[in-house]
């Protein structure tokens, strides 16, 4: 084989020059020269042969560990030859064609040979599940707790799990273990490729009553989201139900073990931290069109519709997965391994990142593991009020419809105080000054300063609405004022979502095409409600797609123009640190910071503040040395595997986008440099995590992210609008607003909410999530901002049938969602079947 280093004279005869150069013979000197040249030639050939042999050996080794594929440079050339605008046009056409929600993948059939298991087999399996739970409870008695104020503990607090979810999760664990037992009993073997055991027979366990009373003519929502859909009152969009599966899960064992490589034989996927380091490395590409307020509102909205329940110890304590041996490790541990050459964590001798699996949700039947959503799916301001009647009542004053607030010495309203010094937020030295973290409708309110500010903004706005409604309706009682204020506030959040937030995400053109814009120009537009649409949150949306906003976060945020305070602040110093809100104009500075800082572009790159310093801190007293932070990207990837989210190509196919089943096909979907990084880590496109693949796609025209994220996000928000019987733009039913009231709601912007409820913000852009000038987005003076007109809500008498559910509904709902898990020595347990209860309705009109 000839290469660039092979001598051109090799193999020629005579080897050096023609014979006529030396007539009459060859001199001794010439002979010596010829021998020297021959020696050099042979030496050169030998070196070349050694190099070729080494290359062939390396090639064979690579072939043994990796499937054949074209060279990376060839793939890159293919991408460069592809017209990006053509790719975007094809993807946009596919997305625009879907003007209704996509049909979820059909439920997988029970894959066991015996489709109908006997009652005895079912009972044996359930008893095995109960025993497994008992063994787990015994193990939990000796579990080491995660240190308070550590990064791992604060991560746990950012995914807080309530007592109801803990009870449900234990029943889900029994179902999961029972499914494993029946699969072993019947010799179930997971087929190659994506698959799961499928939904099986009902688990016959003693159940609490499923009957509860719904009044479908009620003006207001229930706190828990039940009774929204007449045919599916308990399931569609309610709190404490499993996430909806857009596509069937992919587990290593077909039941519950996290996803593994497509190569089979139990081959593990590349460590999540390695994926983060090699693909999602730091790069600071600012998008000056948008502000951090986009990410802040997005997180606030995310917490309104998703709250994944995390596995914990019986009393809610966090599980430490990195301080134990494999023999004592909790069965719900799934830690992220750290390689010895990690450029950051090796300095701290860290070998793993703590990671606890999401709780298994009870489904009432044998089948694959599902995860629990503690929040209602609806945009109903549950992030402000809570997703249970008990939480709502705890946050209310029960006087004039107002919410509890803490009033400072200078008369400012702050959120109610949380005085637990071991909540991962409160600090000893701040508590000694009388300054604490806060309570809200969602336990994650203290996670970062900007999020806490958003919670405070909307809690204040509720009381603003309550006072305004009471002024025009002095005859209304506390319950009426509270519920009407809650109804208006949730409508405002929904309007801001669909009028300001979503057009940025998917682009105004596609948003209009998919019906994701408010009908501000046509108050007589048809009612969009469809009782057959399930608005429940998709697992892939909560576990991957809506986590896109983490890539928006810059490492440093611009603070204020006030020289008396720092001009910038590092992101990680704002986590679990809401104490600046105690200062005068503290909320103003936080909101101005979010409004004045540009976001990073949505792509595969993340700031080091996100990939190294997440929840990095000390306890504030100096008794604990500062510890290294976590890597949020690794945790996101690990969460997707924990949830059994299938690989990137599966979701592309479901969204009817061009396939990415081969590296050549994937070259038309992601950019060249991303593909090079992806191919160096993943052995097949069918191993690529959906989070990584989706973030590697170039953005569509007019949108901030690529086709797959556009599909997954737009589909979920179509469902939230069309599947909500209490949607604020409804034209029918007792839930609707009048035209005059709807006109007032249409006038709301996030900037007006800031002007009305901050301490003293003087000036703000019309659309605070955007930074670009023009297009009606200039600065406005808050003193000139139009006030909310309460006269549209004035009534001459107290409205009839205002209250959504009788008191008995709350009690019976508690019986529905609160199961009782017995101890290890008890022979029975309870569960909630996934099947719908028979709802007793009130007067139907």
UniProtKB/TrEMBL annotation:
Gene3D superfamilies: Haem peroxidase domain superfamily, animal type (1.10.640.10). GO terms for biological process: cellular process involved in reproduction in multicellular organism; response to oxidative stress. It holds the Pfam family An_peroxidase. One of its GO terms (cellular component) is extracellular region. PROSITE patterns: PEROXIDASE_3 (PS50292). GO terms for molecular function: heme binding; metal ion binding; peroxidase activity. Heme b binds at residue 550. It is found in: Secreted. The chain crosses the membrane at residues 39-62. Keywords: Heme, Iron, Membrane, Metal-binding, Oxidoreductase, Peroxidase, Secreted, Signal, Transmembrane, Transmembrane helix. The keyword Transcription regulation does not apply. Residues 824-845 are annotated as: Disordered. This is (Mediterranean fruit fly) hypothetical protein.
């Amino acid at each position: 084989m000839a290469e660039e280093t092979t001598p051109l004279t090799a193999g020629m005869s005579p080897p050096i020059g023609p014979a006529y150069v030396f007539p009459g013979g060859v001199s001794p000197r010439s002979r010596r020269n010829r021998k020297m040249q021959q020696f050099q030639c042979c030496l050169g050939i030998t070196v070349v042969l050694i190099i070729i042999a080494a290359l062939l050996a390396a090639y064979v080794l690579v072939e043994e560990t990796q499937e054949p594929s074209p060279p990376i440079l060839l793939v890159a050339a293919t991408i460069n030859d592809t017209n990006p605008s053509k790719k975007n046009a094809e993807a946009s056409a596919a997305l625009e064609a879907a003007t209704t929600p996509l049909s979820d993948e059909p439920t997988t059939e029970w894959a066991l040979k015996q489709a109908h298991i006997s009652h005895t087999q079912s009972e044996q399996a359930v008893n095995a599940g109960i025993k497994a739970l008992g063994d787990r409870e015994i193990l939990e008695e000796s579990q080491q707790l995660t240190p308070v104020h550590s990064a791992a503990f604060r991560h746990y607090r950012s995914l807080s799990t309530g007592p109801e979810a803990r009870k449900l999760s234990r029943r889900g664990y029994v179902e999961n273990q029972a499914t494993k037992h029946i699969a072993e009993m019947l010799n179930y073997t997971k087929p190659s490729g994506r698959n799961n055991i499928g939904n099986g027979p009902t688990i016959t366990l003693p159940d609490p009553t499923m009957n509860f009373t719904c009044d479908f003519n009620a003006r207001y929502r229930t706190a828990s989201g039940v009774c929204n859909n007449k045919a599916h009152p308990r399931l569609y969009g309610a709190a404490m139900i499993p996430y909806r599966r857009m596509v069937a899960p992919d587990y290593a064992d077909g039941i519950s073990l996290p996803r593994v490589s497509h190569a089979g034989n139990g081959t593990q996927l590349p460590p999540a931290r390695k994926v983060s380091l090699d693909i999602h490395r730091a790069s600071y590409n600012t998008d000056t069109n948008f502000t951090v307020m986009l990410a802040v509102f997005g997180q606030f909205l995310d917490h309104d519709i998703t709250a994944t329940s995390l596995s914990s110890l019986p009393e809610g304590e966090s599980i430490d997965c990195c301080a134990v041996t494999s023999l004592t490790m909790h069965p719900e541990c799934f830690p992220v391994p750290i390689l010895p050459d990690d450029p950051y964590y090796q300095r701290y001798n860290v070998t793993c990142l703590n990671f606890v699996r999401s709780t298994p949700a009870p489904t009432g039947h044998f089948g694959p593991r599902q995860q629990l959503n503690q929040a209602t799916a609806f945009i109903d301001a549950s992030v402000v009020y809570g997703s249970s009647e008990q939480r709502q009542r705890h946050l209310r004053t029960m006087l004039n419809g107002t919410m509890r607030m803490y009033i400072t010495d200078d008369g400012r309203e702050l959120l109610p105080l949380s005085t637990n010094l071991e909540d991962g937020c409160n600090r000893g030295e701040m508590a000694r000054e009388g300054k604490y973290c806060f309570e809200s409708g969602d336990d994650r309110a203290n996670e970062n300063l900007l999020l806490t500010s958003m919670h405070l903004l909307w809690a204040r706005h509720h009381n603003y609405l309550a006072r305004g409604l009471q002024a025009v309706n002095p005859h209304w009682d506390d319950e009426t004022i509270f519920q009407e204020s809650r109804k208006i506030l949730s409508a405002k959040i929904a309007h801001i979502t669909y009028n300001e937030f979503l057009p940025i995400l998917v682009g105004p053109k596609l948003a209009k095409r998919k019906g994701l814009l408010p009908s501000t120009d046509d108050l007589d537009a048809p009612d969009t409600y469809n009782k057959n649409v399930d608005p429940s949150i998709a697992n892939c949306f909560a576990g991957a797609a809506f986590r896109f906003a983490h890539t928006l976060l810059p490492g440093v945020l611009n603070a204020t123009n006030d020289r008396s305070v720092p001009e910038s602040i590092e992101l990680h110093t704002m986590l679990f640190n809401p104490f600046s809100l105690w200062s005068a104009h503290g909320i103003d500075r936080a909101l101005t910071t979010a409004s004045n800082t540009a976001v990073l572009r949505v792509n595969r790159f993340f700031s080091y503040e996100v990939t190294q310093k997440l929840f990095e801190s000390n306890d504030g007293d100096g008794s604990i040395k500062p510890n290294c932070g976590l890597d949020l990207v690794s945790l996101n990837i690990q969460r997707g595997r924990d949830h059994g989210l299938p690989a990137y190509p599966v979701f592309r196919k479901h969204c009817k986008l061009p396939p990415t089943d081969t590296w050549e096909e994937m070259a038309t979907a992601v950019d060249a440099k991303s593909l090079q990084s992806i191919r160096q880590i993943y052995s097949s496109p069918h191993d690529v995590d959906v989070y990584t693949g989706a973030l590697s796609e170039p953005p569509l025209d007019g949108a901030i992210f690529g086709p797959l994220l556009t599909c997954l996000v737009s589909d979920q928000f179509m469902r939230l609008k069309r599947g909500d019987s209490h949607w604020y733009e409804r034209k029918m039913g007792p839930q609707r607003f009048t035209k005059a009231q709807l006109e007032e709601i249409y006038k709301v912007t996030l900037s007006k909410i800031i002007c009305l409820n901050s301490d003293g913000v003087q000036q703000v852009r019309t659309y605070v999530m955007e930074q670009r000038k023009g297009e009606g987005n200039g600065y406005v003076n808050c003193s000139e901002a139009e006030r909310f007109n309460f006269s549209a809500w004035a009534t001459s008498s107290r409205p009839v049938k205002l209250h959504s559910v009788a008191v008995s509904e709350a009690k019976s709902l508690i019986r529905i969602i609160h199961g009782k898990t017995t101890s290890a020595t008890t022979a029975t347990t309870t569960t909630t079947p996934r099947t719908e209860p028979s709802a007793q309705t009130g007067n139907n009109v």
